[in-house]
Design a protein that fits this description.
The complex is a heterodimer. Chain A is an alpha/beta fold. Helices cover about 50% and strands about 10% of the residues of chain A. Chain A has 14 helices and 8 strands. In chain A, the strands form 2 sheets. In chain A, strands 2-1-3-4 form a 4-stranded parallel beta sheet, sandwiched between helices. In chain A, strands 6-5-7-8 form a 4-stranded parallel beta sheet, sandwiched between helices. The longest helix of chain A is centred in the N-terminal third of the chain and has 17 residues. In chain A, about 60% of the residues are buried. The mean pLDDT of chain A is about 95. By secondary structure, chain B is an alpha+beta fold. Chain B has 2 domains: about 100 residues, Ubiquitin-like (UB roll) (Roll), CATH 3.10.20; about 190 residues, Orthogonal Bundle (Fumarate Reductase Iron-sulfur Protein, Chain B, domain 2), CATH 1.10.1060. In chain B, the strands form 2 sheets. In chain B, strands 2-1-5-3-4 form a 5-stranded mixed beta sheet. Chain B has a two-stranded antiparallel ribbon with strand order 6-7. Classes of the chains: A alpha/beta, B alpha+beta. At the A-B interface, helix 1, helix 3, helix 4, helix 6 and helix 10 of A face helix 7, helix 10, helix 11, helix 12 and helix 13 of B.
Chain lengths: ~300, ~325
């Protein structure tokens, strides 16, 4: 864990998934992580610009990395799987090819943006608190253990795969979320599709396909007895939370599954309240799980 | 060294199946295929699986180990035995099981055929041979490495939900022909792959890249086709329009214009008032009249414009090189 980070919340946590940004800032204070805002950051382009206009994608991300460097930070903290993969992929590509980096930097200078010298590493919050000093700190701040609460970890794709670009842990047998759930005093429940796709990238273009993908983890987590699911990605969150009703109708099942952001899970164990963590901003009510958590904490 | 594994069996004649455990002795260097061969030779001759080259070239021995598709001949067993793991060996996913570890590859080949995996010529083929520059070959080299083993298809999350999805292997092959300077049907191919079960079905789960034993990176190949489709202004598919919203949003505000995403991608979905109300009640609908704007937006707007021009020039250059070569070859 670092003392300070260039903090990149990305679009969703800045807009519709505001509760993630608020919860992240709240736990960062407790963990002793200073989050330095990046003035003038933009969207990373998601998988969409990455696919449709790969050159523009590369420049958008180089500009964000250059801005982090301007703040004299060597680590950029992300809280979204898609931002993590986009920024890491751009960073790795630019560092591996000095000619490319120079060409991109020439464009950045031309438009008045700061160039990127290649001195930043992109890390997701999950990785910072799943091991080492961050993990020790997490155990210290988890003063209100979530005893008896069963949490199903849902990783999402782009924090695990492609592992050659992400590489934090075994993409088939990840354990980081389980470690965090247990450090929070809750019980991690296991189920096969925890590493599979939530369908979000195509939920608007191919809703039937996306819902087909979404049903499986919801059903398996429910069958495994989970009180709630937790995810490190705001896109997975939106899919699991906001599209849950549609998935339930499609599958003719009842899920009623509260979905927590990673920062909310940690926040709850650190004694932050329901209101502070903005649980009210969820589409699927979190009450069954949050009542259990906050009743215990009195 | 002793190796224990559990194999998922299926006998179509008796319609009986289930997990069966085997323990055999094999050299420390044994691959999964070596261990299966010993099981078949020494313990149970009825065990059925495909194999041929034993050197990761023929693509016959695709199967799953602990749920992940691998080539049996490329998977060393000693590290797994040392960990004390007893791996479960099962047939590949997304394809019907014929017997034990053998799947029916016909649906796989159907999709392969559907992408027209051959060079399309026109009325002016070269008199001698095609002359392809090294850099032109480099652009499709990764896709050319595919051995059609099916490991990517086995794990494709979109195909589980839409069995008609053309899928990673066939589309990677398609990307190879889209990028092949000798091919004369680029536009036709893009229209074909832009169809209802084409590139925009891909959910970007990256399982294909993770599993491919040859480094083809099929997801990246699909994205290459997506980029070609987008560069042609082919916006008939909801997937392409979804991408356009991100592209335009970054120029307009620097951020994703969330409220434009639904109506522009799929106007019919925008009529889903019940869903919209649920989102609004949770505070998840930003004010469309006062969108969040990034600071220093002028930098991004200029970048957007500069890159548009550079992308266009690069495309023109790519095409120019080919036609000159073809003229020379054909004259």
């Amino acid at each position: 864990m670092k003392q300070s980070y260039a903090y990149y919340p990305g679009c969703l946590a800045s807009l519709s998934q505001k509760e993630l940004d608020v919860s992240t800032r709240a736990i960062a204070g407790k963990l002793g992580m200073e989050l330095v805002d990046i003035p003038g950051f933009t969207c990373c382009g998601a998988g969409d610009v990455h696919e449709a206009r790969p050159e523009y994608y590369l420049h958008l991300n180089a500009r964000i990395l250059g801005q982090a460097e301007q703040l004299e930070q060597d680590t950029l903290l992300t809280i979204c799987n898609v931002c993590t993969l986009n920024l890491r992929q751009a960073d790795i590509k630019l560092k591996a090819d000095p000619e490319l980096l120079e060409r991109v930097n020439a464009n950045l200078r031309d438009v008045g943006a700061a160039p990127y010298a290649g001195g930043v590493e992109v890390r997701h919050l999950l990785w910072e608190i799943a091991e080492g000093e961050g993990y020790e700190k997490l155990k210290q701040i988890a003063e209100k253990p979530l005893t008896g609460v069963k949490i199903a970890p849902f990783y999402g794709c782009q924090i695990l795969r492609p592992s050659k670009l992400l590489g934090f842990e075994d993409p088939d047998r990840p354990q980081s979320l389980e470690r965090i759930i247990e450090a929070c005093g809750a019980e991690a429940v296991d189920y096969p599709s925890k590493i599979k796709c939530c369908g979000f990238p195509i939920v608007l273009a191919r809703e039937d396909v996306a819902l087909g993908e979404l049903i499986q983890p919801l059903a398996e987590a429910r069958d495994a007895g989970a009180d709630a699911m937790v995810t490190p990605c705001p896109l997975c969150h939106l899919s699991l939370d906001a599209w849950q009703g549609k998935a339930a109708r499609e599958a003719d099942m009842d899920f009623g599954m509260p979905i927590f952001h990673l920062a909310q899970l940690v926040g709850a164990a650190a004694g932050l309240t329901y209101d502070e963590l903005l649980f009210k901003r969820h589409v699927t009510k979190t009450h069954p799980a949050t009542d259990k958590i906050y009743a215990q904490q009195g | 060294m002793q190796f224990t594994l559990k194999i998922e069996r299926w006998n179509p004649e008796t319609e009986q199946g289930g997990l069966q455990e085997f323990t055999v002795d094999a050299p420390e260097t044994a691959t999964l295929l070596d261990v299966l061969d010993i099981v078949k030779d020494e313990v149970d001759g009825s065990l059925t699986y495909r194999k041929s080259c034993r050197m990761a070239v023929c693509g016959s021995c695709g199967m799953r180990m602990d749920g992940a598709a691998v080539l049996a001949c490329k998977t060393p067993m000693a590290p797994i035995a040392r960990e004390g793991r007893v791996p479960v060996i099962s047939p590949m996913g997304n394809l019907p099981v014929v017997k034990d570890l053998v799947v029916d590859m016909e649906p796989f080949w159907d999709k392969f055929r559907a992408v027209k995996p051959w060079l399309e010529e026109d009325d002016h083929p070269p008199v001698k041979e095609w002359r392809v520059q090294q850099e032109e070959l480099d652009r499709i080299m990764k896709e050319a490495l595919c051995i059609q083993c099916g490991c990517c298809v086995s794990e494709c999350n979109s195909m589980e939900a839409d069995p008609e999805f053309l899928g990673p292997a066939a589309l990677a092959k398609g990307a190879k022909f889209v990028g092949d300077v000798r091919d004369r049907d680029r536009k036709g191919r893009l229209e074909l792959y832009n169809g209802p079960h084409g590139v925009w079905d891909c959910t970007r789960c990256y399982f294909c890249n993770e599993r491919c034993p040859k480094g083809v990176d099929p997801r990246d190949a699909i994205a290459k086709i997506g980029a070609e489709i987008y560069s042609e202004g082919m916006l008939s598919d909801k997937g392409a329009r979804h991408a356009q919203v991100f592209d335009v949003s970054t120029r307009a505000t620097g951020y994703l214009l969330e409220t434009a995403l639904v109506p522009y991608t799929d106007p019919l979905k925008a009529m889903d008032v019940k869903f919209a109300m649920q989102m609004a009640r949770a505070g998840k609908v930003p004010n469309p009249l006062r969108p969040h704007r990034a600071k220093k937006l002028d930098e991004v707007r200029k970048l957007h414009k500069v890159l548009k021009t550079q992308e266009k020039d690069a495309r023109a250059q790519k095409r120019a090189g080919v036609s000159v070569d073809r003229e020379e070859a054909g004259s």
